[in-house]
Structure formats: C-alpha cells, structure tokens
Write the structure tokens for this entry.
Amino acid sequence: MNALHHEMILASAGSGKTYALTNRFVALLARGAQPERIVALTFTRKAAGEFFDEILTKLATAAREPGYAQKLAAEIGHLDLGPADFLRMLRALVSGMHRLRLGTLDGFFARIVRSFPMELGLAGEFELLEEHAARLERQRVLRRIFADALELSAAQREFVEAFKRATFGTEEKRLGPRLEAFLDDYQDVYLTAPGAEQWGESARIWPDGCAWRFVEGSTPDGIAALRTALSGAALNDGQRARWEVFLNALADWAPGVPLPSASVDYILKNALDVWLGICAGRAEMVVERRKFIVEGEVAAALRRVITQMVGSELQRHLATTQGIHSVLRSYEMVYHERVRRAGKLTFSDVQRLLVPGGQVPLLAQDSGGAEAEESRLTIDYRLDGGIDHWLFDEFQDTSYGQWLVLRNLVDEALQDASGARSFFCVGDVKQAIYTWRQGDHRLFREIFNHYNGAMAGKIIERHLVDSFRSGPALIEMVNAVFGNQTVLKTMFPGEASEMWAREWRRHVSAVPQRTGQAALLHAPNEMERWILVSELLKELRPLERGLSCAVLVQTNEIARDLAEFLRKDGAMPAVAESDLHVCIDNPLGAAVLALLQAAAHPGDTLAWEQVQMTPLRVVLLAEGIGAPETLSERVLGQIHTNGFEWVVEFWLRKLEAGLGGDDAFSRERSGQMVRAAAEFDETGSNDVSEFGEFMERYVVRDVETPTAVRVMTVHKSKGLGFDVVLLPDLEGKKLAQARDGLAVHKNADRSVDWVLELPPKLFWRQDEVLARHMEVAEAETCYEKLALLYVAMTRAKRAMYVITQAVGSSKSQNYPRLLGNALGFETKKIQVGRIAPEGTWSSGDPEWHEEVKTAPARSEDPLIARIPPLEPRLIQIPRTGHPIRRPTSETKGFVRGGHLFGVDGSAGVDFGSAVHALLATVEWDDGMAAFTLARGKGSSMNDAALAEALACLTAPELAIVWNRPINAMSEVWRERAFEVVLDGTWISGVFDRVIVVHDTSGKVVRASVFDFKTDHVEDETDIWNARVRHSVQIATYCRVVSVLTGLALDAIEGKMVLTGPCRVVSMRSASG
Amino acid sequence: MVPASANVRRHFLSWERPLLPQAVSWLVAGWEGGHPLDLSRTLVIVPTRQSGRRLREALAIFAATKNQAAFPPRVLTPDTLISLSLGSDVASRSDALLAWIEVFLTIELPAFREVFPIDPPARNFAWACGVAHSFIRLQATLAEGGLTFAEVPFNAGDTFVEAARWVQLGALERLYERHLAEHGLKAPQAARIEAARGSAALAGIERIVLCATPDPLPLALQYLSAQAASLPVEILVFAPAAEGIGFDDWGRPRSEYWSQREIELPDFKKRVHLCAHPAAQAEQVAVLAGAYPNPPDVLGVGVADPEVLPLLTTALRRREVPSFNPEGRSRRQESLFRLLKVLVDLVREPTFAVVQLLALCPDFLALLCARLGNKFSVAKWLAELDELRARHLPGDLAAARHHARDESVIAGLAIVEELRGQLLARDFATSAAAALRLLFADRRLDLAEGTDAQLVEAASAWNEVVRECAAAGAHFPRLTTAEWWEFALRLYAGGFATEEKPLRALELQGWLELLWEDAPHLAIAGMNDGRVPESVSGDAYLPEALRTRLGLKNNEARFARDGYILQAVVSCRPRTDCLFGKTSTAGEPLRPSRLLLRCRDEALPDQVAFLFRAAPLVQPNFPWRRAWKLQPRSVPPPQRIRVTALRDYLQCPFRFYLRHVLRMESVKPGKTELDAMDFGTLCHSALEQIGKQPALRDCTDPVWLREVLVNEFDRAVRGRFGTRLTLPLVVQGESARQRLAKAAEIQARERAAGWIIEAVETPFEIEIGGMIVRGKIDRIERHGETGARRVLDYKTSDKASTPAAAHFNRPRRGETPAEWARFEMDGRLRVWTDLQLPLYLHALSLKSNDVMTGGYFNLPKAAGETGIALWEDYSPGLKTAALRCAEGVCTAIRAGEFWPPNETLNPEYDEFAALFHHGVAASIAKVAE
Ligand code: SF4
C-alpha cells in the first residue's frame, strides 16, 4: 500500500475535478478508512449530491465490470483490488450512508452548531433563516425601529446624527430605502469589522500621517491668497478667465458634494497631474491647452488650496464612514436583540458564530474572554476525534471566514504524524469568480506555502491540464487567449497578470478526435449580436442533432430578454435559466395579489380597479361581491379561517376554469403560486402586506432541460459543460473597474485594517495610501474578470462562438479588446456551415456539425413515467377507512360567544367532564350512593362539580335515572363505549347511562338512554334550545341501543338529563 | 432487557392478508353474533392512536356483518398506557417548564460549567424558556428508557467521557424536582418511570393484547412485565411464524436479524420511483389517486417525508380528491391562533402596525360591528385607518388616537384600547378570559357551521391551556403578564386539533401507521434515507453512541423496525409503490432509503445504478403565455384637469387614463415615512410663509429667514404628526431643515438682488382645447429696479433640474410623438414632456402684458445645488409650440385618446407596473373610448 499524501489539485476546466475527488474518496475507502470519518465539503447542495452519486456509480460500475475495476484500481494505486473488493466498499458505503459527512460547508457548520448549542451560548435549538425569512426579519426590525415615537433616546439621537453624517451632502428624504441600501451594501463589512476604530479612522489609514493636512487655515483665506498670487502671474486671457471661474466657483463648494463646475474639476485635475512639481515649487501645468508655469507664490498658494480641498474632502468621507458605522451598529443592536438572541440565525451568522477567538462577538455581549475561547476549543477537540480525512471541492471559493472555522481541524490532520489522516483539495484559481461573495482564492497558495515552507513536500501539488471536455479547436482558442502572457501583461500590468501567469498551464485536449469549431465573430450592435446568435443556431440546429447548447451572458436580465428574443424571433425553444418571479410574472398572479390588496386596503382603488379589469370581475359577481365592502368581509374571513394557501387556491381555481384548455403555462404558474403561499403560511405570519412582499420576491429556479437552448449567466454555467456554447454578451467598459462603495483594507491575516467610504477618484489618486489600496483592489477585479472569461470560454465541448462588436476606435480596455489583442484584429469572413459572418479568428472545422447525425428528439424519455393503477382483479372491497361519526359532534344549534371563555379560563368543558366522571361512578341509588360519591374522590376534586353531581343524585325529579326498576331484571351501562356501523357509516361513541330492562325470562323488553348535559341553562327557552341541540345525538344513541339489544325503537326512550337544574327532558317529540 | 414471564405468549399472523382483518379475527375468536360483541374486558395496546382507531372501526364492521354492534376493547398506545396510572399530583407541562425556568434563572451558572460552558448572551426569560424546552425533550427521551439525568453516568459504562456533565445535569434535575416538590408536585418523567414499575391490577381487565407494535416504549414493556404476573399478555406479531427468530419475546424486530436480512421487493424497478423533488412526488401520488374512481377504496397512501405532506394535500385537492391527515390540524392553522397571535403582539407593544393587523381580524371586526351598529362599514374603517397612517404616520396606538378624526376610527381605536386594557388588567388567566369574552360576547356561534364549530372546539383547547397556566402560575409567579401570554401561546401552538375524516377522503398516513393499512394498493412517498429509516445524528446530549450504551432506541433499532415494516407492508398486499425524492424543496440532496438497498450483494451494483441515477423531469417547460388581457372600464374623460396632469399625459396617455380618469390610486400599507409628495407639501407650506408675511418678504438676513422657515416647517410637521415623531420623521425633518436653511440663504441673496415676492400660491384657470386647466403658482416675483417679473416653482426632488431639461426631451426609444407634441430645436427633434411653466406664463399673460420669465427654485438633496434655475431661453417659438402641445393634449383627452402607452417606463417608478406583463400595449385588451 502506498503512502497517503496530502494533496492539492489545481484542475483546469474540464480536466476532471470531480473525477479526482471521487477517486480520492475511493482511494481512502480502499485504504480502509471508515466512511464516516471522512469529511467531504462542497459549495453547493447540487455538487454535494452529484459527488455522492458519482462515488456510488463508480463503485457500482467497478463491482460489475472487471475491466473498469482494473482501471480504477490502477488510478487509485491499489492494483490488487478487484470487483469483489469494490462491491464490499459499496456495501459498506450504502449501509453507513446516514453517517456520512458529505455535504456543503454551510450544512457542515450548521450541524456543528446544532451539536454544541450550549458551548456557543445558544438556548438549545436554533432556527436557520433562509433568505426570504431573513429579509422578513429585517423588515420587522426596521419597522420596529421606525415605530418608536417616544422622546428620542440617546441611542436614537445618535442614530439621527449618524444618519446625517452617513448621508452628508445628500439630504435624504427617505430613510427606509436608504437604510436598506446601507444594509445590502455594508452589513457584511460591519459584521466582519464591527469595531468603530476600523471605520474612517485617519490614524489607521495613514499611520505615517496624511499628506493632506486636514483643514488648516480657512479656505476663503487660501482662495484670496491664490487670487493675489495669480494676479501677478503671466497668463493669457483665456487662462485668466479659467482661473477666475475656478476661484469663484470654489467659494461655493463644500466637501462631500459634487464639484460645483467643470472648471473646478479641470483645474484640480490638471494641478494634481503635476502635483509633485507643485509641491517641489515648480511645475508645468496645462491650462487652456497651454503650458503655465506654476512656481513661487502661485505654487505655494495653489498647493495650499488644493491640499485643503483634498484634505477637507477626505475629512468629510471619514466622517461619513463613521456615520455609516454608527447607523449599522444601531440597527444591529436591535436586530441582535430581536432576532439572533431569539435563536434565529442566518448561514453567515452560523459561520461567524464558529470563528474561534471570537473576533466578532456574535451572540455574547462582549466576546466572553477565556471561557468562550476554551469552550470553542472543546468543540474542535470533540470534532477532531471523529474526523480523519478532509476533502474540499472548489477550494478557490472558500472564504477566509470559513477557513478560520476549519483551520485548527485541518491542521490536526496535516500535522498528524501517523500518516493515517489526510487533507485533499481541488479547485481552480483560474475560475475564482466568487470573490465578491468572499471567495478567497489566494488561500490555495498560502496554505500550500505555509505547510510546505515548514516541510517541503508536505502537500503535493498536481496540475490537471487535460481537458476531457473540450475538443482541440476549442483548446487552441483558450490557449491563444489565456496563454498569451504578453497581451495579458500589457492589458493588466502588475499583480493580476502575474497571478494569472503563475497559475496558468498550457491546456491540452484529452479528446483529440472530437471535431468542432471555435471562432470569434463580429456584429455591430446588440441587436445584431442577438440576430447572429439566432442565425448560428438555425445553421447548427444543435437540438435536432441531440447536442446540448447554451448561450452565456453577463446578467439575468439579458438572459431573460435574449431567451425571449430567441423564442419569438428565432422560433426556437429557449429558456432563461434565471430565477422566475412566478407570482407576479403573469396576469393570474397579479390579479390574485391585487385581490388580496384590495380586500385588506379597501381604499386602494388601483388594486380594486385592476381586479375589475380581469376575469376576476365576473368571478366576484358570481360570488356576490360587487363592492369593496363585501370583498373585504369575504376575503379577510377566508384568510382568517383558512390561511393564505387556501385563499390563493380558492380564487385561482375559479380563474383557471376560464383559462384556455391548452394554457398549460398559466396552470403551472397557478400551482407554483399555491405552493408559494403554502410556504408563506409556514412562517406563521398572517400579515397581508408581508404576504404580498413575500409573493413578489418569491422565485422558482427554472428547471434544467435538455430540450431547449439554455440561456444563462456565466456564473451559473460554472461547473457545467455543453456541446455548443455561444458568447454574445462580452461588451462592457473597463475590466479594471473596482466595485463601488466602501474601500475595505485588509491586513495579511484578512482582518479588516480600515474602512473608508471613498471620495471620487480625483481626490484619492494622488494619495499614496489610497491609490495603493485601489491598485490592489483593481488588480483583484481584473483577475476576477479574467477568471470569468475563462469560465465562459471553457464550457464548450465541441463548438464555441464568441460574438463581440468590433473594437474599432473604442479605447475601452474590455473583453472585446482583450480578445482582439490575443486573436488579432483583421476581419474576414468566417465560415460556419453555410453562413459566413464577419470575424477575426477561427479554428477547427466549419462543417463539424454536418457529421453529427440528427438524433431523434429526446422529449419523452426524461419525463417521469406515471404509476399505473392496480388491475381491478386484485381489488377486494370492503375495507376500513369509513368516515367516522361521533354522536357528541352531532350537536346542533347555537352557542353564545361569551360562554366560550370562562371567568378563570374554565369554561364548560372541564367542569362537564368532572360531573360526568362523578356520575359514572354511580351504579344504582342504593341509599349510600351520595355518601360514596362525596367520599370517594381525591383532594384535587372540583368542588362545584361535586356539588352538582350530589344535587343530581338527590333530586327527586332524577329518581328515575338512579333507581333500579322494580319487578324486573335490569342492567345498567355506565360510560360505556360502543362501535357500530349504521347506514354505512361507522359510529363510535360512549353512552353516559343506559338502563336495559329484562323480563323474568331474561329477554330484553325496554331500555332508557340517559345523556347528561351540563349546559348552562337559565330558563325554559334555554332548555328548549338544549333539547334541539342534542336531539340528533340522543336519537342516534337510541338506534345504537336498538342494534345492541334487538329492541324496536319504540321500546327505547331517549332522555336528556340537565344536571344544572336537575331536569329530565324526554326527547321523543323533539327528535322528529 | 425486560424479562418476559410465562404469561407472555407470542402469536404470529401471516403476511397472506393485511394485518387488520387478521387482528380482528384473532380478537373476536369464538363470537358468533346474536348478542353484542363485547371485548370490554380486553386491553389492547396498539402502536398509535390512528391504528387504534382502525382497529375499532374494523371491529364495528365485523360486528355489522352479524347485524350487531361492539363494546370495544380498551385500546391504548404504549404511551397512554403509562399515563393511565399517573396520580393527580404530577406536574403539568407548564409546571415542569416553569420549574426548569426557575432553575435556570436562579442558579450560579459558573457552578455548572459542564452544562453551560459559557454564559448566554442574555440570561432572561426567553433564554431560560428555550433551554427548558430542550431539557424537557431530553428528559422525555431518557424516560422512555426509564432513566433520569442522574442515572445516566451509572448506566453509560466505564469509559464514559461525559460523566462530569451528566453529574451536573443530575444536580440540576434535583433542583428542578425540588422546585416542584415545594408545591407538592412530582416531576412527570420520574412519575412515569415510577408508574411503569407499579403492578396495581387494572380494574375490569382480564387479558392484555400487545397488538403488532414493533416499537413499544421500553417503559411500557416494563409495565406489561409487571402486569404479566397476574394477567395473560398476548403478543401479536405480524409476521409468518417462519420469521420467528427475527423477533424478540415482545415482538420487536431484532437488529441482528433485520440488518442482514434481504428485503424482498418484487418488481423492484417498476415499483420504486425516483422523483426530482417533493412536489414531483406529490404530483405522482395525486395522479395515481386520480386514476381510481373512488381512491380510498383501493389506495392507501403513506407519507414518510413531512415535506411532501402539504404538497400532496394541495396536489390532491387540485384533482378533486379529498384527503385527510389523521395527525390532525395544527392549532397554528386555526383562526383562534391567528387572533391570539395578534393579541400577544398587542400585549407586547401596541404599535400602529399591530393595531392595523388587529383591525383586519374578522373577530375584531365582528366586535366593532356589534358595538357600532349597522352604520359600521368594514371597508370604510380599513380605508380610514390607511388614510390615517398615510397622513399622520402614527407610531403607536396612542398617536393614532391622537390623530383620529373619523368617527368610526375614533370609536374603533377606543375599543382597541379597551381590549388592550383587558389584556393587561389583571393576572394572565383572568385578563385572557376577559379579553376574549369582550371579543366574542356578542357572537352567536352556529354549531352546524364548520368554522363556528371549529372555533368552539379551539376555544376549549385554549381554555385548557389557560387553566394549566393559571394553575402553574400559582406555583411560579415569576412571569409578567406579557410573558405569560407568550408562554401560553407557545404551548397552545404546539397542539393539534383532531378532525373527523371527511367522506371519501384519502388518508395520508405517517410511516409508522402503514403496518395497519389494509388497502390493496399502497403508495409510500418520501422513502428517503433519514426519513425511513429515521436516523438521528448530532444530538447535543444523546449522540448515537450514548444512546446505544444506555439502551435507548438507536439508529440500528430504527433500521430493524423499519426494515421489518417495509417487508411486512410489501408482502401482505398485491402492490406497493415506493417513491423517493432526489432533492428537498430547498434543493438539499436526498438519498434513497437504505432499506431499498437491502438486497443480495450480487444485485447491489445494479440497484445502486438504478436508485442513484439522475432524476426525471416532471413536465416540460412551458413557454410564457398570456392568460388574458386587461379590460379597463370605459369612463368619460374629465372636464377639468390640473396642469400637472398634462405632464402625466405626455409621459404616457394610457397611464393618464388610469390615474386621472379611472382614478386608480394605491395604498402603501407599509408606509412609515414621508413620501416625496408629503415632503414637498411640508416644505412648500414653510416657504409659502415668506410670501405671506410682509416683514419676511423684505428680509435679507439669512439667519432670520432660516429660523422662520425651520419654525414654520416644524409647526406644519407638528400639526400633522404631533409632537412625538417617529424616527424616520425625525431624520426626514432634519433633511428638510437642511434644505430650507440653504433655501433661506438663496432667498436672502435674491431679495438683496432686488427680487420681491408679489404673490404666492396663486390659483388660475384657463381654457385650452375645450378643457378647463387649473393650477396654482407657487410664487410670482418682481424686480424692484428693473420691474422684470418672474414665476417660480419649488422643486424638492432629489436632483436639481433646469426648466428646459424638465420640459422637453428627445423622443423615447420607439416613440412616434403626435404632431402637436413635437418641435424642432437647433435642427433636432424635441418632444414636450411637461407644460407647467409655459402654462403658468400663459395664464399670467392673459392678465398682464409684462414680460415674464419662468424658473425653478430647486431644493435638492445636494445642498450645494440649491438655487434658482431660470428658463432664460424660453423663446416665443417655444411658447407657440408649447401652447400647441397643450391644445393637442386637451383635445386628445376630450376625444378619449389614451393610446399608445409608453413602453419604456422603468417599472421601479411605474405605480402601474403590476398590471403589465411583457409589454404595456400587449397587456391591454382594448383602449378606452
Ligand atoms: S465541473 Fe467540469 S471540470 Fe469540474 S469536475 Fe465536473 S466535468 Fe470536471
């Protein structure tokens, strides 16, 4: 057996990443590892499912096919293994499948938290908030914050101040949307760096002091000085005018707001271009297209003015940043109290909760110090005891936060000297397109260097470059673009291209026989690009040939529009694989939501009128609803009794009746809406507005289908492969555009050093610290953009057509330029089958598709087969499953609402059953009954019930109930259960008291049925009502007695015994 | 474990027929009819309530074959068997919870670091309640095996690493028991353990039958053991005698046997169905059910995955197959719960949002109706409340009452206040009853009416909870009324209402019920691992290994039980279909049940390949399709319009029709702050003052002006919103003040430059194209020296704009503007987008011949952009074009021309966006005439 290495696999696209991962898993099993001691983590639930399926398929195939077994055995380095061994592994794996630890990182973390709630300060169970639930909670917290109207507390005062600071210069009229935007954009940053000292703290940003001394001397003085200095300078008229406009406009300027005029921008920009010279005392500055020598007094004064401008602008942004921090903190405090402490956590909360060292005190008020630390270590210790092997998928997407949680555990495995434990990861740093979701691809190299630095060869690095996916034509294009270091270096100088060069390996097609084509085509504008897509598809006809086909774009909106275009203008099946807002993307949903809105808000004439424009109008009229009043009463009542799902379904059903018979789409939507409403009901909310919001946001992921052209974003295509890929949406501006918003500067250990809301570029480009920060940030963006293009261009198996606009005179450093630089700019006709669009590059065979036989449409086989019903000969009836009737539930009549809820919470029921229980103990009144009753029960007895029971026993009017009939044999049934089938219905009940009289021969001659009622009655009317109420029930009892005794009905008397007034009421006449 | 005595005998019932008829034959052996089938001296123990129900039904049916009825046996589940012999001094659920809460809130946490390694973030009632619930669950699990916390270390064996923790748990348990004992109460878990040991004779019972219960509570077996000393205990095992070695003396499947036994599933690939997700499983079963004329006659349905259950109910309903969940209906789905939830919110905090929730609640509406008499209108009440919110943005009930003007709103809110008073007046039980009586006092509930009967039933369950809480409250007075409400609601929410099965309804049964199903065709959905067999992992206190050590039910035992059930269920009927899902609704991957893989080794690879293949599609993707087009009502156009409406028409004639002709206006239910319109109005009303007061008109002191403006603004705000402002109002007020301050500077500067206000808020009416157009001019000024005059309009939108930019533009993409709407400027085509200033100027020119300029007084959010933007190059040519356009618009409106709509509006700013799908014109059936 060969030694088990720690391995790190850098797998280029299509090179069999999953293959390597599953092989590793099998190899571990082959070495005798216990499956449940292997942790294998992926990023998506889908990947986790596929991973497991593939391991099993692999083992199953190896167990069946000796040839395959041999190959697998060789690949995992256990040549001695044969089918029987793989079968054994397969059996072990499936038998222990419930113990496996194979899933997503999120799921793994959640399981840890579930297992160690107390160690983490939770009160037992917690609830994981999925996205929509988290949004709902946020809304509630905001509403809570907004409802406060008491004297403003200090905290609220602070909030208002903070908000003013955070939004300085833009006097917001709306708080809600702005605050939500803050949360969307900045909450993550806040939770990673909650400390005030990290936000807008100049000493942290410029530890060596800021070159732009903050506001020193007054600006007007500076302007005056500059004006004086300029008056003596040699300027032509145009230049002087320019300066004059600048000086005047400057007086109106305040930091934090846009520059007041183009002249200010112009002068500032040109001055900063020669800033070092100005600082040194002499510079040549361009003003009005002519050189102007800035020196002496002018230089000094200009320097002062500009330093002040930049300085005050930076100062302003520092204050804004601090303001943002305070706003977020105020919100978080409420959220924390109401949501997290109530045991509701999001996935990212769960992860933060597990970060050791309590960098971020998520639950504890302060991080709890040594005890928390120790408690956290206990968790690691316990977990570690159960894990030997670690497998990571898509390691480039692991975030640093996730790594922090895992670090100690993985470290144990890596440091283990016995060789029985291992670490393995696969990924591709060239496909790191999730940095915006905190994916941290640099971890890959850092971890490698860390361990191998301490001990060379500790982790073995392998590169997989053979693509099993793409044919040679495609690989040629990929190599031409991504292997062209010269082009990359010129377009992305610095870190981005260097990083790329370090990780790049020339790709090789492992399927050299696979014919196909790769081409770069041109079209003049968006519409023409789309038309070209449509033409290519018509020429290639991939679906008819049984080839899968995808069109990859950059945004979901484009995906939706383009799919729509292809369906309409290209008349081909195309689906946008984006999230579908199924509740509002169609008239049905809109109508039903408007109906609910109109019901809850009768003043909403828009909703009402909208409803009236739809077929709902007729439906409502048929239901007798012609005005808001009746609508509200009806619908609110429905919601109250049945919940939203029921209501939505009720109205949708009515609408469906009027749909076209072939309108499968609307019917499908209708079903989806009902499901959405059911999901909402699960949240337990009965708020109509929350429901509306929920439905509006509710999305369904369009199902994958092999029978359509799939239009999707590049991000979504990651991990997928298609026979034919089209890339018509690569336009755009600069690749180096860093994301807007906060600049977050991190230390080497990824902890946040400082946060700053960036001023416009003009103000930071001459600042050493900020410029350096932005350079890194832009390199990061460039790298991600490059990775995105790489992902897009490596999805195809046979053919790929990239369609861009010709670069022409555009200077944009964008994808089209990158492709042009790498593949050439010379336009020619590119043959693709029978069409020949313009383009610059092609490899492979333009006729490749002609060789692919047209395959029969695969429309049927993937659809699910229906389960056939049982053949009639196998059916024997009758069987159980009758509806049940309980006589007690046959009560009719009315109850007064006020009687439902007793004075002390005790209404009729409890009292009633106590009385019943007491009376059931009495067989006959033998003179001692009352005594026995009074003595017989324990202390916890209900006194009132006892009094009532005693009264019943002694009341002369009730003597017939208790007295043993004279001159006859008789038996009494007390609280006796019965089961019977009457008129085809199963009846199950309990008699209170039945007296069955036998004659001397033992034959049953008559019977009396007594039913005790503790109903609250005051007068004869009440008694009459009670009689009506219970008549059916008592009649049923009589019929049951008739079956049991064989007596005719007229020999059976049904009587109601009112225990309150001690009355016996004969039921005979009332039951008719 | 529990030794069986000679009095305990096993009887095997073969798989040739389903269990139920066989169990009946066995029980009724010897009865020939002629007199009632009397089994009342037999105690039958069945696994679940539902199986007991089936048994009783089967007995009734059997008796009916001889024209008789039955006195049924006493039927109990193992759990109720134990409860039977509990005394009345056992603590209730509430007592137990509260005793634990008492413990957690009073102990020194550091003394229990094994249990509480760190202090919780907040040691309050909510935390204690959470921990109490999990401790009670833990106690219940242990008690099944007859164990208390303290006994765990002694039973867990020698090398037990967690001993220290369990010793502390034991100590906590003692404290808990002490708290209960102080009030004469016994801990329920301990009481059950004790009850199981007791062997008091059961009155009137002559034999005990443990009927096809593969997984009885160990505690119950202990009890039966004790009873076996005096009574015969018959164990009915549903399996052929040949399988005898597969069961222990109590009829429980043996793990050793069932973990190895092949489970025979004939026709495997035809009978086991892979589905993509829960909805697909539901769909499959529903289609199958729909294929039978009367499904319950033939089909039995088992649902092992709770996620499938609601979906299946829905899918069946869609196919008009009534279904029934024997588990009952959760209290959470009932109207009483919905009401109580709002009441709890009201107790917690009477925010206006809560008031509005209550206002929508039909129970509350019924009360208003009763109190306020016939004239009460639900629609008006709700609309007025929305209006109140929109106008005054009240934060809470008090603020709302302060602003209320409408009679019914005043009365209604007073009733809310009264209700809240009742809710908090006295101790929880009393106020709960009082508040609910207040709500329902005037209601008459008709028991024949389903919803009313449901309410009556729910009310009694709630009373039960209140009573329990009241009793517990006497022992543990720590809770506030609000906490009691939450505590009680949580208890109540956990309950279920038992419903009766509707006629011809298909029962959707849980996995453990299936042994008792007697349908010839059985379909089981949710056959996924973790569900069947159920597996428990990651339990914080009782990991699998400890369960095994303690002899509690573990995953192996569950596997054996479920393997047995599957085999029995499949073997006793002609057909069983198993469905399993590939993923959960949330996309979590699922695996097929391990039971489906319990085949011969040779078959395993093939079976694995079959079960782990990709999931088939349920249905193809349907292309988007329009169900209908909207048919707007046709209404005659108005005679008079406002100037601002012309802009709406120019922007989109169709939306103009909706807004100004059909008068469609939406209500924003979540409105918590000023909208753009409110904001503008408030700023206007402050600015207006400058023109109204002569002293201010001539003021050039920005400081004074600012003070006046800000004071005026504050006054307006106070007048509309009161003195207690909500947070957004405070923030928005700040913003407005900043803008007004900046405006004061500009005003002072302009006055100093000679501009004097002549008039403010000047109304006018003019006739254009046969229509009356009216408007109000914000302000008219005259220059003191030059005599020039100008018209200014305040703009409080976020961005400052110039009149020219606001009044015309290039044509929109795809727009062919009407001839009258366009003009040429510098050789380029322009289209009017607004006519406000031209019409102001036009209206004034009809009264005077002075030359006038128009312009904006911008108060945008960027303070630096505050200022006056004049329309200097408004030429006579433009004027002519503008008037022609106004003429055109008015004529078109009068002619009822509201087409074509603007297709390019950003849906985010289009209040009518919800009406349109895939194009505006395409969504509308006909243009109004
Ligand atoms: S996604 Fe592509 S590269 Fe990755 S493992 Fe699957 S086939 Fe291989």
Remarks:
- The two ends of chain B are 87 Å apart (CA to CA).
- Chain B has a mean pLDDT of 91.
- DSSP finds 35 helices and 25 strands in chain B.
- Chain B touches chain A through 219 residues (CB under 8 Å).
